[in-house]
Design brief:
The complex is a heterodimer of chains A (159) and B (737). Helices cover 36% and strands 13% of the residues of chain A. Chain A contains five helices and five strands, in the order ββαβββαααα. In chain A, strands 2-1-5-3-4 form a five-stranded mixed β-sheet, with helices on both faces. In chain A, helix 2 packs across helix 5. The longest helix of chain A is centred in the last third of the chain and has 21 residues. By secondary structure, chain B is of the alpha+beta class. The N and C termini of chain B lie far apart (57 Å). The radius of gyration of chain B is 27 Å and the shape is globular. Classes of the chains: A alpha+beta (159), B alpha+beta (737). At the A-B interface, helix 1, helix 2, helix 3, helix 4 and helix 5 of A face helix 5, helix 7 and helix 15 of B.
Chain lengths: 159, 737
């Protein structure tokens, strides 16, 4: 079996059974490391990706369900050399310790900023309520998301 | 900033050329007792074991300590760069590799800056001095005339020579003398700065950040099937269903160890489910009744040690008080289940692991697999944060057992969520009993304290038996040896059991309980979290009995100036009002400790909010002051303090491993909730830098003080005291009545 997936704007063929969780296709076939396996139960958020703009748990999403969708992973946002506003803000706030949850935090925050470009601190906390962090980096993560909103606002002001 | 590159070549580089410097016993080499060297230089005495200067003017730094998400490699790089007068961009850090680095045991106990940092500081100063001497000869100028900046040594007349040009005449294959003086703090340019963490860019962009991300050519995926409960025996397993799943390469069984290897990860997971359904087990012994767990712990045989005795007269008018506190089993709760990649090739086993100690792990693998030590290499690769001894070492043996069945092909094994929650060793349940006599002068005249606890380390090499999970389930099962406990002053279950306060008379007893009905080991702070919880709760209870403000009461019993300073600093930062009282719903409390009675001084104030109807306790805000001596990286220290406080609030409000007689019930995040983003307290930290004091370990400094502050704030808010953790709603409602 092979299924076509559109990931970060590129169409790719994945040789896997239709019930394969998207997470494994992304990591093992497309060699995208960002989304992480945390629980396989949609409880922790480490595997979050955007599917048609919505933050989705890739660990419980079969590839057969997303064949026609636009899938965006953290690699699709930016790179070390050209970071996305969220990635830049997370670096500037030093908002990671072990970093295992950070993919999910950034992707959930991306969905938030796309629908609410000027969130309050409370909005950020609520949007990330389903993403678990164990190192206690919570406050830095919140600050990073608010900073990303400011970076976006400044960039939009210029254009 | 360059993200570290993990590619095949880098991972196998050096396999054929194992560094021999560490196997040479200095006593043999010199025929006499070696002199005492500072930090980890003592056991890893050769300069080139720590630092090598390369022809391109860069330096390679070797450390046995490993990155666990605490930022240690950045801090150690700062120390080395400072002493070598090299910019950070010209250092390459190599850490935790039995083929390449010093053996510094475990990365644990907030000791990396003290041990590895000290070694790098001294070795760096010495290597710099050797380079300056070489340059002096080359340039024909006295060494004291030369200046060094960014790896370039300059004579007064402007002639220059770079470190790289001196490599040909440089011999660092020599024993460290520790005679070169490190820089005085006033001259520090890199140490003391909030240098950005080296690992963060890769972690926020999907770079290869951890062992879970390793992808070697030809790599297979493994999963294991664990028994229904501890000590069960695998009677039989019908492998047909599992083997019928496409992509399954092998089912591996060795006694009661059962695993499966497949081409694809999801195939291995399906095969694991199939094996689990078709396995028949003889169950191991029942677990204790959770309702009686603390009685059980107190009733088990223990080795008792009396520590911290002071004998003084107790006034006749003294009033006595007594209280008993408990702490449940707690999970490390790593967000990523443990993972390892193992490969058997040409008789050699290589294991990529997020173990906290690659050398101790290697010793366990050698024992379990009956291989010579020279045939096993363990390479540290960062994993999800571990906060102590989680499944990291166990999964490495699991992966090796699977890899042995498919020589030449690497096997990646990540535990499933239920493997991690169900089988990792937990932080032990503990009972603490405190008793004190309060004199007519409002001061504590006598203090008695007892703590009952299992060991806080069943790590690799902690006993003379086998200390990795799968070894106990092999066809020829290996056994753990008698448990051990680190001695005072650091201690294990008795860590921080001796108060730092000045009491005229005191007695502290550590009941080191030998039998372990539930698997336990090191969780961040070992016994300190529970002991500081009990000790600092009791201090507040006594302050209340004496009618004193809790901060004034503490200061009245404390001489150590640095201890007093952090308490005074946090009181100021939190704008503490002497005698402040809660209003039934809101309140504040304080906790203080000098971690291990050896490391950083931390005082924490928190505010709690109690919902009396639902029994929910929230911690909206907290303040802390910390003195860690000389600060290497202020932002790194702040991050460790913040993280420790938030983690401790999570432990304190929510966390408890559930079990019944049939086995462990905590298997996922629904059965083990932790603090969420909306619940995380704001944290304000005050750092007290002491440039002329040695740097003190800090990674575990704030957990004990934070729990004490939370329970004291609860008592301040409601007038009721909770002595059993966690503060979950049922318990809170019962206490509030």
């Amino acid at each position: 079996m092979a299924i076509n997936l559109k990931v970060n704007g590129v169409s790719r063929s994945v040789p896997a059974e239709p019930d394969t969780p998207l997470l494994y296709a992304l990591r093992n076939d497309l060699e995208l490391n960002g989304a992480k396996f945390g629980c396989g139960l949609a409880q922790c958020g480490a595997c979050t990706v955007l599917i048609d703009g919505k933050a989705v748990r890739s660990c419980v999403t079969p590839i057969s369900a997303v064949g026609g969708s636009e899938i965006i992973t953290i690699e699709g946002l930016g790179s070390v050399d050209k970071p996305h506003a969220l990635q830049q803000a997370f670096i500037e706030e030093q908002a990671a310790q072990c970093g295992y949850c950070i993919n999910g935090m950034i992707m959930a925050a991306k969905e938030l900023l796309d629908r609410n470009p000027h969130p309050s601190e409370g909005d950020v906390r609520a949007a990330l309520a389903g993403n678990l962090c164990r190192c206690g980096t919570h406050n830095r993560i919140i600050r990073a998301v608010l900073r990303a909103a400011q970076i976006n606002a400044k960039a939009n002001g210029r254009t | 900033m360059n993200a570290p590159a993990f590619n095949r070549r880098e991972f196998t580089a050096g396999l054929g050329a194992l560094v021999v410097a560490f196997s040479l016993d200095p006593k043999v080499a010199h025929g006499q007792e070696p002199s005492r060297l500072p930090g980890s230089l003592q056991n890893n005495r050769r300069l080139d074991g720590w630092i090598r200067i390369n022809a391109d003017g860069t330096a390679t730094i070797f450390t046995g300590k490993v990155e666990l998400g605490q930022g240690i490699l950045t801090s150690l790089a700062q120390i080395a760069a400072e002493e070598l007068d090299l910019p950070l961009t010209r250092l390459k850090m190599i850490s935790g590799d039995t083929g390449q680095t010093p053996d510094e045991g475990q990365t644990a106990g907030s000791q990396s800056v003290e041990n590895s940092g000290t070694a790098l500081r001294m070795a760096g100063a010495e290597v710099r001095a050797i380079l300056v001497d070489l340059a002096a000869k080359r340039l024909g100028v006295g060494a004291d005339q030369l200046t060094v900046a960014d790896g370039v040594i300059a004579a007064p007349d402007g002639r220059k020579v770079g470190y790289g040009e001196l490599v040909a005449g440089l011999d660092l294959n020599r024993e460290a003398s520790a005679k070169a003086s490190p820089k005085p703090p006033a001259r520090h340019k890199i140490v003391g700065k909030s240098v950005p963490r080296l690992d963060i860019p890769a972690k926020v962009t999907g770079g290869v950040a951890c062992v879970q991300d390793l992808r070697l050519p030809g790599m297979l995926h493994g999963r294991v099937v664990r028994p229904p409960r501890y000590g069960s025996k695998l009677d039989s397993v019908d492998e047909a269903a599992a083997k019928a799943i496409p992509g399954v390469v092998a089912v591996v069984r060795d006694g009661s160890f059962l695993g499966v290897i497949a081409e694809r990860e999801e195939q291995a997971i399906k095969a694991r489910d199939a094996l689990r359904k078709n396995a028949k087990w003889t169950l191991g012994p029942e677990l204790p009744d959770p309702a009686r767990i603390f009685e059980v712990i107190k009733s088990l045989p223990s080795k008792d040690a009396t520590i911290g005795v002071k004998q003084g007269a107790v006034p006749a008018d003294a009033k006595t008080f007594e209280a008993v506190y408990t702490k449940p089993y707690m999970s490390h709760g790593s967000i990523g289940p443990s993972c390892s990649v193992a490969e058997f090739k040409d008789g050699t086993l290589t294991v990529w692991t997020h173990s906290q100690g690659v050398f101790p792990l290697r010793a366990e693998l050698v024992k379990a697999l009956k291989l010579p030590a020279t045939a096993v290499r363990c390479v540290h690769t960062e994993g999800s944060g571990c906060y102590g001894h989680n499944g990291a070492d166990d999964v490495a043996l699991d992966a090796a057992l699977l890899a042995r069945a498919v020589p030449g092909r690497p096997v990646r094994l990540q535990w499933m969520r239920d493997d991690e929650f169900g089988w990792e060793p937990y932080g032990p349940a503990m009972v603490m009993r405190a008793k004190a006599a309060l004199g007519g002068d409002g001061k504590i005249a006598d203090w008695e304290y007892e703590v009952w606890s299992n060991t806080h380390s069943t790590r690799p090499q902690s006993t003379n038996g086998s200390n990795v999970l799968a070894a106990w389930y092999l066809a020829e099962p290996q056994k753990m040896g008698p448990p051990t406990s680190p001695p005072q002053p650091a201690g294990g279950g008795d860590r921080n059991a001796i108060p730092l306060y000045e009491f005229p008379s005191q007695r502290v007893v550590h009941h080191f309980v030998q039998d372990m009905p539930i698997r336990v080991s090191a969780l961040r702070t070992l016994g300190a979290y529970a002991n500081v919880f009990a000790l600092e709760s009791f201090m507040d209870e006594l302050a209340a009995a004496a009618g004193a403000d809790p901060i004034a009461f503490r200061l009245a019993h404390l001489k150590d100036e640095r201890a007093r300073a952090v308490i005074e600093a946090v009181a100021k930062k939190a704008q503490w009002k002497p005698g402040e009282k809660g209003d039934g719903k809101h309140g504040r409390g304080i906790g203080f400790a000098k971690y291990k009675n050896l490391a950083c001084y931390v005082a924490v104030v928190v505010e709690v909010e109690v919902d009396r109807a639902t029994g929910t306790v929230r911690v909206p805000r907290s303040w802390a002051a910390v003195d860690s001596g000389l600060i290497i990286n202020p932002d790194g220290l702040t991050s460790q303090m913040e993280g420790g406080i938030i983690q401790s609030v999570s432990w304190t409000l929510k966390e408890e491993v559930h079990f019944d007689k049939n086995g462990i019930l905590t298997r996922d995040w629904a059965t083990y909730p932790i603090l969420t983003m909306p619940e995380a307290p704001k944290v304000e930290i005050e750092l007290i830098n002491r440039p002329n004091e040695r740097p003190l370990g800090s990674g575990e400094g704030s957990q004990g003080t934070a729990v004490a502050a939370v329970v004291n704030a609860f008592a301040n808010a409601t007038g009721k005291r909770i002595r059993d953790l966690p503060l979950h709603p049922t318990r809170v409602k019962a206490v509030l009545g």
